[in-house]
Amino acid sequence: MRIYNTLSKEIEEFVPYEDKKVRMYTCGPTVYNYAHIGNLRTYIFEDILQKGLEYLGYEVIRAMNITDVGHLTGDSDTGKDKMVESSKKEGKDVFELARFYTEAFFNDMKDLNIKKPEIVEKASDYIPTYIKMIEKLIDEDYAYFSNGNVYFDISKANDYYKLSGKNAEDLLVGVRNSVEEDKAKRNPADFVLWFTVSKFSNHILKWNSPWGVGYPGWHIECSGISYETLGEHLDIHCGGVDNIFPHHTNEIAQSEAFLGHKWCNYWCHGAHLNDKSGKMSKSKGEFLTLSLLKEKGYIPLDYRYFCLNSHYRNSLEFSYSSLDIAKNALAKLRSKVLSLKKEGEVSLEKKELYVEKFKDSFSNDINTSMMVTTLYDVLKDNSLNDITKFEIIKDFDKVLSLDLCVSKEEELSTDLKKEIEEKILERKKAKEEKDFLLADKIRDGLLEKGVKLIDTREGTTYELI
Ligand code: AMP
Ligand code: ZN
């Protein structure tokens, strides 16, 4: 397996700390709003990485945080807390807000066939860990208390800029232009580990600490959760490219200072999805969510397929016309796969050849479009019988997760099937009792769920639309 490492800026051979076991940490969402489809592109890439490694025979333990405190509107300790601002706007209590958007996030993940990480932890549940880490950082002179906050002193870190390749000069320009220059810092790039209420006296989320009532900075939460759940050594840490600086840079500085040794070997970043105007935004322009795509008639897997056709390190521009192309291609692909006859014997030898090709594409820095091409090659290969093709594609779909081998009917959960059957009976009864209003209401209710009833002489059946 070879993968690009942001740390070395090279494609490297992947060697985990422990043979065949991978500890992977992926930064999770800040649950102040719905995820946009740009965020979801990053989670799709991380899902493919996890499943691809599992396909190669690794056991992967993936952890993810849910940020429900400390992420300010400016990534460098500037601006206001995103959660607190949104709770005011929506008139919801912060924890209710977090619950609501966490649930919405996992619904999106499920719709996109993204495996839920083995470990998911809320930032607000790890306050004692952050306090323990910060105390040690202060004791060992990596951190200092100044004007109400605790800061990490970046001049003490081992090569602070090693991940981003930035330098102090670039940063100084940014700081000079910033209206919020923090005079309490020793170095302009020092970052906050713990805010006391001096920052916002009315901050809702606050806890006691040795430095006064306050709340943690955003960066310490990922270091803390990763340390508690995955231990002192991490194999892979992922996120979108915007996380490289300052978030991941600061995670490395504080984790390595706390642990006293190198922390994570491979840093993998997904490039952004942009809209026509450039950066994807939750506040400006059309707020592109998965629900919006569903409302417009796309299925979530159309978007997954759209993402898989480009390389994760290339930025990708979103347009409805390219999503339409993906939608049509996926529908054709699925119907081709479903039309394969499941008769005869599987040629294991031929299957192995294609599996190797597929593994090679994944192992070549997660070349998803090559993985998809290999799948088309299987369909085109006249030397393969249908059942062999079907079995190979079923195997590939463990990683691609496009539901290629599941017919729409099979996709239906038994619960929904049961519900439809019950509704059909209810409607039949309503018709017998000449309550046509109710009968129509039942029909329309099912239609809204994508279930079209068809009345025949033999009775009522249905189709999924
Ligand atoms: P956030 O909820 O803002 O903390 O972001 C969640 C994840 O989405 C992070 O890994 C970000 O790096 C990533 N991300 C943010 N914007 C984009 C984008 N336009 N395209 C791809 N990933 C993004
Ligand atoms: Zn993080």
Q: How does the major sheet shape up?
A: 5 strands, parallel
Can you tell me the CATH superfamily of the largest domain? HUPs
Task: Find the CATH topology of the largest domain.
Answer: Rossmann fold
What fraction, in percent, of the residue positions are helical? 40-55%
Helix vs. strand class: alpha/beta
Radius of gyration using CA atoms only? 25 Å
Percent of residues in beta strands?
15-25%
Count every helix, treating DSSP H or I runs of 4 or more residues as helices: 16
Spell out which ligands are present: adenosine monophosphate, zinc ion
Summarize model confidence as the mean pLDDT: 91
Shape: globular
Distance between the termini: 41 Å
Which CATH-level-2 architecture of the largest domain?
3-Layer(aba) Sandwich
Instruction: Give me the count of strands.
Output: 18
Strand order of the largest sheet: 7-4-3-12-13
